[in-house]
Amino acid sequence: MDGTTAETILEVDGLVKHYPLTRGILFRKQIGEVKAVDGVDFRLGRGETLGIVGESGCGKSTVARMLVNLERPTAGTIKYKGEDITRLSGRALKAVRRNIQMVFQDPYTSLNPRMTVGDIIGEPYEIHPEVAPKGDRRRRVQDLLDVVGLNPEYVNRYPHQFSGGQRQRIGIARGLALRPEIIVADEPVSALDVSVQAQVVNLLERLQDEFDLSYVFIAHDLSIVRHISDRVGVMYLGRIVETGRDAEIYDHPTHPYTQALLSAVPVPDPDAREHRERIILTGDVPSPANVPSGCRFRTRCWKAQERCALEVPLLAVPAEFRFTEGPAAHDSACHFAEEKQVVPPEEPGGEPPAEEPESAP
Ligand SMILES: Nc1ncnc2c1ncn2[C@@H]1O[C@H](COP(=O)(O)OP(=O)(O)OP(=O)(O)O)[C@@H](O)[C@H]1O
Ligand code: SF4
Ligand SMILES: [Mg+2]
């Protein structure tokens, strides 16, 4: 679905999270700040999936934590159905939180090993008893196990009795318990074996249709979000540097950073792999406590010029594409944006394998 036509369910403007950088134990003195998130804007349409991609440390999890209200922004707004949730408190906040749930990266550490699967999935009902009366909870939890492809009879087992993929299914069932409208999935498959990743992604896609969910799907690798995302935002050092519909980003990227990320995506077809250009980025990602002036990507960009150090490029459709209406006409924060096809377009039918239930533990 194209997010430009669907009803907006979430709208993020100027989102900032700066952490103070301090020195000294007795007399703490602020010596700077870590600009973990430094001005992020996006919108999410109902039923849509927005993929957010970027290297480690670029601020993806910090954005996720702010979306589900685990952390307060330093500045900016997060509007859920038009209402700024960063200003809510008490009962109003609790009601909104119910509708925006998170699925975490690591199914090994995010599930309490001393709790049964039933208690883990049903725990959100302790905070929101209005969703499920006590007598009805066990049945609801069993329904949820069934929905995520696990045997409802596993309700009394413990997390260690499950495989990685199954544990992530448990995490997803827990995320669904309160019947949210939005799920923020922070690298939900990164800790899983490659063979299991596609199954969990397919499960998330099926659940999206079944429960009319909208997703913010975070990953560090563009190949993972390819099939599930309607739109993609590429993050670098606390900001989104390029954003557009799935095909615009994969087949017509205009930002050098996106092009470099794409050139590292695995290509299964050996012929296509041979024709693909590899762009190797030199240098490390700068520290978010010391962001370069002008374009924050300039210290690693092979196209950088003087202007790049002086002027911050805005996230907008670059002037040279503004009137073309072609697929390159999407937002890209680069003074010298240029279309470049890095990965050969996919043949039809290149979808991942269908969802398969996992074997019993
Ligand atoms: N509580 C905190 N205090 C200070 N700095 C923090 C805090 N939380 C995160 N950071 C810093 O903010 C930056 C962004 O972190 P974040 O976890 O959001 O990145 P990420 O994109 O999710 O990375 P990864 O792919 O490794 O999960 C990092 O440099 C991190 O060290
Ligand atoms: S603005 Fe300059 S440094 Fe930044 S991505 Fe574009 S060419 Fe590279
Ligand atoms: Mg993270």
TrEMBL record:
<dbReference type="Pfam" id="PF00005">
    <property type="entry name" value="ABC_tran"/>
</dbReference>
<dbReference type="Pfam" id="PF08352">
    <property type="entry name" value="oligo_HPY"/>
</dbReference>
<feature type="region of interest" description="Disordered">
    <location>
        <begin position="330"/>
        <end position="361"/>
    </location>
</feature>
<keyword id="KW-0813">Transport</keyword>
<protein>
    <submittedName>
        <fullName>Dipeptide ABC transporter ATP-binding protein</fullName>
    </submittedName>
</protein>
<dbReference type="InterPro" id="IPR003439">
    <property type="entry name" value="ABC_transporter-like_ATP-bd"/>
</dbReference>
<keyword id="KW-0067">ATP-binding</keyword>
<dbReference type="InterPro" id="IPR050319">
    <property type="entry name" value="ABC_transp_ATP-bind"/>
</dbReference>
<dbReference type="InterPro" id="IPR017871">
    <property type="entry name" value="ABC_transporter-like_CS"/>
</dbReference>
<dbReference type="InterPro" id="IPR003593">
    <property type="entry name" value="AAA+_ATPase"/>
</dbReference>
<comment type="similarity">
    <text>Belongs to the ABC transporter superfamily.</text>
</comment>
<dbReference type="InterPro" id="IPR013563">
    <property type="entry name" value="Oligopep_ABC_C"/>
</dbReference>
<dbReference type="InterPro" id="IPR027417">
    <property type="entry name" value="P-loop_NTPase"/>
</dbReference>
<dbReference type="GO" id="GO:0005524">
    <property type="term" value="F:ATP binding"/>
</dbReference>
<keyword id="KW-0547">Nucleotide-binding</keyword>
<feature type="compositionally biased region" description="Basic and acidic residues">
    <location>
        <begin position="332"/>
        <end position="341"/>
    </location>
</feature>
<feature type="domain" description="ABC transporter">
    <location>
        <begin position="10"/>
        <end position="262"/>
    </location>
</feature>
